[in-house]
Amino acid sequence: MSIIAGSYERFIWGFKLKPTKHDADTQTLTLSPLFSYPSHISSITTVACSGPAAASGGSDDTIHLYDLPSASSLGSLLDHNHTASITALSFYTPSSLSFPRNLISAAADGSVSIFDTDPFVLLKSFRPHKKAVNDLAIHPSGKLALAVYRDECFAMLNLVRGKRSFCCRLGHEASLVKFDPSGERFFMVVNSKVGVHQSEDAKLLLELDNGSHKRILCASPGDSGTLFTAGEDRAITAWDTNSGKLAYSIQDAHPARIKGVVTLTRNENEGASEDPYLVASASSDGIIRVWDMRMAAKENAKPLAETNTKSRLTCLAGSALKSMRRPQIGNQKAEKLEEEPNSG
């Protein structure tokens, strides 16, 4: 299992999660460093990871790629047509594959780019909306994506045609959007609340609210309708999105606000059912922790593994996929950016 994190200090951090000898008094896993270096010339804003491939985007308007098995950099994607900070990155990996098929990127100028990953080449770049993208989620089919914007807009994107299918104004700014593993529902985060929506018609099914009034900064869907959220309250919360109730939580999971949470064993490999239910989290004070969420109900739950990067972490991604294939960058050619009519 691999974990990567980005920081304000321009550093990318890569770790391999490895088992250690079992001892009741010590952690059973260890985060072994793969690499750490300043891959960007300004702060890293978003990271993504799937199998052997990882990507990072920064406020320097660039996207960098990494080969995790060899712990090496592949360089940057020159052709993406973004002219502002990269705000979202997401790999699309079909459930039958262990290697990602596409990488989707979005930026603060409203642009969205679609890349093939074998090798990495730009397929399509378009601007479905002119305002900044806060977050983007790919449907499990790989055919469409949802995007939420800084100006309170919400859009559905057709990834096959590279066009906007639908756009509306929400009346409030959503910071995060995520699909559940089945693709039948999606989650939208607004400040301290999470809306659970039906994918077919975007109907609001229920709202998750723990009453803390502290902003949710990250979210990761799990199995069986579970959604993990974390943020300014420094806790990792597991929601039952079928009932709308709080399932369990780890209070004071970090000493500072949590900037990233990722589910590491979400149907991603055949051995997932044999592993503990692993969730990784990263806080703004540089600490990364890995938890077995089955232990969350116990008081003073302790992480299985922990490391301190001593940097101001901004984002986190991870993957449990194993693949023998190696990522590489193809020939890069400039392509004209297409704009949607009336995208403002």
Percent strand = over 45%
The counted number of beta strands is 29
* Element string (H = helix, E = strand): EEEEEEEEEEEEEEEEEEEEEEEEEEEEE
Work out the helix count: 0
Low-confidence runs of at least 5 consecutive residues: 266-274
Mean pLDDT: 88
Strand line-up across the major sheet: 8-9-10-11-29
- The end-to-end span amounts to 41 Å
Category by helix and strand content: mainly beta
Largest sheet: 5 strands, mixed
Helical coverage, percent range: under 10%
Shape: globular
Radius of gyration: 19 Å
Describe the structure.
By secondary structure, the chain is mainly beta. Helices cover 0% and strands 51% of the residues. The protein contains no helices and 29 strands. The strands form seven sheets. Strands 8-9-10-11-29 form a five-stranded mixed sheet, with no helix packed on it. Strands 3-2-1-28 form a four-stranded antiparallel sheet, with no helix packed on it. A hairpin with a 2-residue loop joins β17 (185-190) and β18. The protein is globular and about 55 Å long. It starts with a strand and ends in a 5-residue tail after the last strand. Mean pLDDT is 88; it is low at 266-274.
